[in-house]
Design a protein that fits this description.
Helices cover 39% and strands 23% of the residues. It is α+β, with helices and mostly antiparallel strands and 234 residues long. It has one domain: Hotdog Thioesterase (Thiol Ester Dehydrase, Chain A), CATH 3.10.129. Helix 2 packs across helix 3.
Length: 234
């Protein structure tokens, strides 16, 4: 005698397969075009500005005039890491306030420049780096050259290897370099900063898609009869 199972499995419904068959196929992604000669020149200049402080100062006169006037310089370019990186802001008249201390605006503004220099040296040749959020805490007045050190950072190289755009957070400590004893430093501030990094190839692809949409809308508007004429008055 055959036994009948108590909870027989219900037959599979053909509805999901029919829905998948009616679903339109995903559009094929267009291959990204190779960079133009001008874009390759821009990437080369970006890498050169990080490798050499002289070219960094020259390019800063055009794109970062505030950084050029302040005179901030990056050190530790060889075997760059968070432990080896340091950016020094000189104690010059442009950076000081009326009571002969480092101005808060100079410390705050150059925090973004110093963190951007560190991040840009790792992924800046092929990425655009934009500051999203920054928090600075003033601890004591700075009466000498300021030294920016990255004390904690996310694995930027791993994010770059994964591809695509990403956010990265950095923590910096700002020290006052002693004028008498160069080997001693005083902590004057802390900074938490977040950057958004986007591949330049992705930026170009987005701009091409926006241009194609604008051209398509323009063609549709020109093909629509009476689109260029104003609405009739009452």
């Amino acid at each position: 005698m055959d036994t009948v199972p108590l909870n027989p499995d219900p037959p599979e419904s053909p509805l999901p397969a029919a829905v998948d068959a009616l679903r339109p196929p995903a559009p094929a992604r267009r291959p990204m075009r190779p960079p133009t000669r001008l874009e390759r020149l821009e990437a080369w200049a970006s890498r050169l500005s990080i490798k050499n402080n002289f070219f960094h100062k020259i390019f800063s006169l055009v794109w970062l005039p505030y950084a050029a006037r302040s005179g901030i310089k990056m050190y530790g370019k060889k075997a760059l890491s968070a432990e080896r990186f340091a950016a020094i802001l000189p104690f010059r008249r442009f950076n000081r306030n009326f009571y002969d201390a480092m101005a808060g605006a100079a410390l705050l503004g150059n925090s973004e420049v110093a963190a951007g220099m560190y991040l840009f040296s790792i992924c800046g040749g092929d990425y655009t780096v934009v500051c999203k959020e920054m928090k600075y805490r003033f601890l004591r007045p700075c009466l000498g050259p300021a030294v920016y050190r990255v004390v904690k950072s996310q694995d930027v190289e791993e994010k770059v290897a994964a591809g695509g755009e990403f956010n990265v957070s950095l923590e910096m400590e700002i020290y006052q370099q002693q004028l008498v004893r160069k080997d001693s430093e005083i902590l004057v501030g802390r900074c938490d900063i977040t950057f958004h990094c986007t591949p330049k190839s992705m930026v170009r692809d987005r701009e091409e898609r926006r241009r194609a949409v604008r051209e398509k809308r323009k063609a549709l508007d020109s093909a629509t009869p009476g689109s260029s004429e104003g609405a009739p008055g009452r």
